[in-house]
Fold these 2 entries.
Entry 1:
Amino acid sequence: MITVSSLLDKEWHERYKRIANLNIRSSIYDLTNRCNLRCKGCFFFSSGEHKVAKEEMDIRKWEDFIDKEKARGVNLAILIGGEPTLCMDRLEAFYKRLPTYCATNGLIKVDRAKFPDMMTGISLWGGGEDEKILRGKDTFAISSKNYAGDPYTYYLYTITPKQVGKIEPVIKRIQDVGLKVHLQLLSNDEGVDGFHWQPEELRDIRFEMDDMLDKFPRTVISCKYYHEVITTGKMMGRSFGWMECPSVTETIDNRKPQPKRLIRFIRWASDLQTVHRCCTSATRDCATCKDGAAHMSWIMVNKRAHIRTTKDLQNWIEVYEMFAKLYRLIPW
Ligand code: SF4
Ligand code: SF4
């Protein structure tokens, strides 16, 4: 019988043990319906998710809600929106109660005196020119000043098709300001001209991402198996999509057969009652979804399928380690 122990040598087994018991139960919270940017292709605004619920304004209701979430078993709160830093009191309510991750555009600086070790992921959509087209400004110029050298911050770099062959200078800029970076791919939810992926671009960007990992191993938080799965949409011969997606809100997940999924995962709207379909756009065609977190989780929840060969299991461990590093559950 093939087991974890039979596939791994001592060193890999130690790595496996380090992540095997993390038992993460994450959920996602829209902290607000507002943002200080309006990016073309933002899944939140393009799918109308900012209109489905009226934002709860009473901080005590947020505090009670977070306590209930904790009691429900959530041990990692992922805060998105809208722009979470527009609501520092809600941010603080989460941070005081739960391990918290804040996804921000980085234009507003989180006060480290109040949030000393809160993980912060700054969205970045390519080099300055792409950012001006898609987001209206070169956000890096501002966010890098706010967060340079911060040990609890990394860039979440959404690569667009126009970035193929050009990502190295972006990674280098990030390295030069003493931050780290995780890579994902644009899904182009608003159909911006020239920003749809072609098969050959996906092939090329996969190898470029691999190359960046080899060249900047201390800066890029990633692994090659993740690059393979996110660019091909394939894992162990299976295709990513609605019937495989792990990141669907549990309370409305009626899929049959039920795929392997994130246990207790819910994405809450900012009224603290409404839930969204999944971790990203409510209107996105799953066949076009390139969501990095969903692909990463897809691999992670399918451990059993990877207990097949040594290489398959090592791939799974590397993806899990990548996830754990992104939330600093293990050291960088
Ligand atoms: S900064 Fe984020 S939430 Fe705001 S519009 Fe851009 S992608 Fe959407
Ligand atoms: S859009 Fe993506 S994350 Fe959402 S259900 Fe579809 S495949 Fe999953």
Note: Residues 199-215 form the longest helix (17 residues).
Entry 2:
Amino acid sequence: MGVNGLSAEHDNENLQVEANGPTDKRHLLSGKYIVKMIPRFQLDPFDSQELVDAYIENGFVLVEDVILPEEQEEIKTDLAKINRGDYSCQVIDPIGWPLDDERLLGRYMYIGQPHAYSPTIRQYIAHSGLCQILDLIVGATVPFWNGAYKCMQTMFVTKKPGGNGSPWHQDEHPIPTRDRSLTGVWIPLSDTAIDNSCLWIIPDSHKSGVIYHRYSHNLPDVDSMTIARGFDDSSAIPVEMGAGSVLFFSGYLLHSSKKNLGKAYRPTLTIHYCTSTSWLSWQGELNYRGVVQVRGEDPYQAEGYISPRTWVKVE
Ligand SMILES: O=C(O)CCC(=O)C(=O)O
């Protein structure tokens, strides 16, 4: 059986946590699952070549302490405002809950394109710490990349206590850059561990270039997003992270999360980028123009820009 069956029944008593030097903090041994060390980078200083090599080889890099505690608070407060309907957004009905009511964080499990109406979220697209890494990796596997990149999606994913996990998938399936530049940025706004819905990944799954189709399902403990099938998930590993650390990962990397067994909400901001040259046939457009140019020239500038379509999903 693959690791899909591990989540809810997972017995944390059996976990041993060992120190593994300054950059590799955890080496978890859980029954028959040996969870490999996850290399952890710090913003200052880091070796650019080492980070790029790690991203290409692993399909992800974890960088610690990118989003400061006060920035995390700003994003969480904005998430509560968004959920409350404080912004003019057609898909969210205003609700009269006080801003410090924790339930506001998880009124919706998914909130799509909040930067379309929230200036706070929009400013995080070009956050200096994120861009320090993105400048190196977005086109790291694209021949003749000129360093330019754009953002096509922001999204909140909040797992409330007892909330279901997200199914296995590759982000490249719905967002077809096809030049392998799609880069997901996953920013947990609380500490995330096995018990409270940390991300899981399948090592090396970004390498083959195969895209696994997604199907509807009725799995318990998994939310209603479609699930990718056709691969072996027995080598999956959890990526436990502190709040404000950031996981940068390839759009081809298979990933998922599990049910939140904790008592606290697990809010996460995600942002997606690709090279500026990527011809993005998405959302019914031949070349999607609801983009924010982040670095360099936009070669399709003459096609103009549109406002992203906003959306929410309860579960
Ligand atoms: O946050 C999660 O639980 C899953 C997020 C995810 O799969 C994604 O951002 O593509």
Note: Residues 157, 159, 166, 171, 184, 186, 197, 255, 257, 268, 270 surround 2-oxoglutaric acid (CB under 6 Å).
